[in-house]
Amino acid sequence: MTRRTTALTFALVLAAGGLDACRKKPEPQPAPAAVPVASAGEDHREDSGAAMAKRRADSIAAANTASVARTEEESKRTTAEMAQVLAQKVYFDYDRDVLRDDARAALDSKVPILVANGWVSLAITGHTDERGTAEYNLALGQRRAAQVKRYLEGKGITENRMTTQSMGDSQPAADGTDEAAYQLNRRAEFEFPSNGGALVRPRP
Amino acid sequence: MSTMTSRRALLALLCIASPLGAQDTTHAVRIGLTYDPGTKPGVVVLPSKGLGADSIRSIVQRDLDFGDRVSVMALEAGAASDASRANVPNWQMLARLGAAAAVQITSTAAGLHLAVYNVATRQTALIRDFPAPAMSEMRAWRAAVHGLSDELQESITGSRGTARTRVLFERTRRIWVVDSDGEQLASLTESGTAGSPAWHPGGGMITYSLLVPSQIVVQDLSNGRARTLASGNGVFISPVYLPDGSGVVYGHGVDDGVDLFTIALAGGSGRRLSVGRGSDNVQPTFSPDGRRIAFTSGRAGHPEIYTMDADGTNVDLLTPLEFGENAYRASPDWSPDGRSVAFQSRIGGIFQIMTIGLRDRALKQLTSDGQNEEPSWAPDGRHLVFVSNRSGVKQLWVLDVESGRTRQLTRGAAVRNPAWSPRLSSN
Amino acid sequence: MTRWRRLAPLAALGVVGCLASKGDVELLQTNMQSGFKAARDASAQAEAAQRANMDRVLSQISRETDSVRVLSVRLAKLQSDMQNDHYEMGRQLLQIQELTGQSQRRIQELRASLEDRAQSANAATPPDSAHPAPTGPGPGQLFQSSLDQLRRGSTSTARSGFEELLRTYPTYDDAPEAMVYIAETYAAERNQAAADSVYGLVIKQYPKSPKAATALYKQGLSFKAAGRPAAARDAFNRILREFPRSDEAVLAQGQLRALGR
Fold it and tell me: Which of A61, C81, C167, C228 is most open to solvent, judged by the fewest CB atoms within 10 Å of its CB?
């Protein structure tokens, strides 16, 4: 009696195991030997590394039509989030176009998004506070925009994805004649044609 | 200081005669008025009859007053009526007032009739007729009256007035124009991103910049027609006409600073004039002989005024640079007599108008009330229009450099970048 | 018997199998269920182990990648920082050059004023035979005052001053510049032929001076205005060859572009 049930159980276990093995078989194994050095290789590895999670997500999505809407929602949220980072302003010292550490950090956070969304182009506009002459401020604003562009170029964003212009002191972000307002006005702003296109989150 | 005095001594050695030396020391060249040198001759504008007589009289009185070269004398009420009754001036009364000249202007069918009387000799010194349009054509009519004022001032003082001039400026990123007496305010551009206007030497055209899309525009004032002269990426700013009016010099830059370029009105592409190597070079202004350009450059790390040959060579710093100084000197405008450049300089954190002599580099501070910026010379080389916040909002003010007298030219919303016209003949 | 006994359980199984009571079925079901459960557990365990293993490998790779990424980001930052610093350094160098140029000019002016002082001192005391030219103005004075004259439009006065400077002090440091200004006085008088010949003299007499580049450029402009584009091109190209780092070289490039190479 016991023996019989054991045998049966065993057969079933075998069957289950087989099934399980079958299900697991296509799991591709990443080749750890090929540790990437350049970012291109990195991206490639990211794909395979994240395959499992993605496949899981995919199967869930396929099983549940309601989650398609959820994915769209998620994509919208991601796009908004990424857009916010891209649009984050960069601030400057008085009569200077040199990028401060906070400005570099803000630009650094844009880089992976720009890398992950190769179709996005960036319009950089330099602004100044109201002090000084209109013309010199227009030139200064242009220099600020150019400095930002130069920095991003140094981070590998291709030159033709970026345009620069200056509004000088003609479009203050803050009213007032104190340093707090002036600081808010000495800035570079970023615009990018969204075309309704979705922005993807860069792989961590 | 000793450099200056000794240089002056040396000049006496080298200099035989200066063609520019002769100032208006010869008073009343035309009509032989007599008055003490160094004082302003008293002038009475007599009341007269005819269409718009009172307007004409008040316009001319104000023009003469704004000219700062004569002292306009008011008549007592009784004397006025007495004078208006008579066909000849009341000499005793005029002598009692201490007037050197009396003026009567009457409106005629053809225009304006001007008579100037020499009070000392009791003679008619000058009779002239001026064509003028109908009063309904307000702008042109006022221009004709201003033209009369300028001629009048010249006849009395030997120095032509600048009443018949206009001032371009920028307000809410539009270009505006106003007569020298603050009247006839008009907008010349659609609302947009226009700035830094400048006059054609003939006075019939203007040039200015647009921020979006960035370009240099030239506009014909007679028909309002505007066209793009230069455009592209980056900034296109601070255009000025060449002294012969054949082209425009402007600032342009994309990613490597802003340099001065020159372009012909006929077209073609801009050719570089300054070699800023990544610095900003803007606000060109020509010497009256057209051979030199003064401009603002940041090549030393902060804005200073430089001069160079009109072809871009022989660059020289004009303003005195101090090492490690955190100065800001900008907005140069070459004086009509060629002898000095007016500019704005930051003094104690606030901008003031200064002049610097081309020859001796002597500095003169002209303002101290509030913040004062962006000077532009009147064609008489004696008056400057500039932006000041002394009354609160930035407005245009006119300064008589000789006497220090100021008057407010504009009111209302904030303004900037004034450009005083040359003397205007028509339009 | 033994055989039967051996077969007995089978027979019993068969009997039980054939004649299985309800209780037996229930028992079997329970057994089977526990069997399934065991199988599932074993499978889950195996799967968990495999997954854990894989996650370990993955996280290992991810750690390695992270460090590589951190390194490459750091490298990129370093590169771009260096690029920026490079740019900044270039600009500061330019400013230093500018300031040096200005101090040179200052020295020039200072020299003139020193000569002024020396002259007034000489006037007060009897002339010292050791000083070569105690009577006339010094070279710095002559240069400054002549330039002042040029700037105020007194071209002939300026010219005679510069000419006196070159005559009296032919080895003066700023002799090439003085000569360019002599040419300028002619140009200001619209005597282009005279100006051109003096520019030619600057190029010939001071071929290494930076002012030769200025003279070449002015000559090129004159050729261009006179409708001699080939001669103009030669002058501009010579600037590019002999004074490639000069301001005039940048201007000449613009001219050559306009002329069409």
Answer: C167
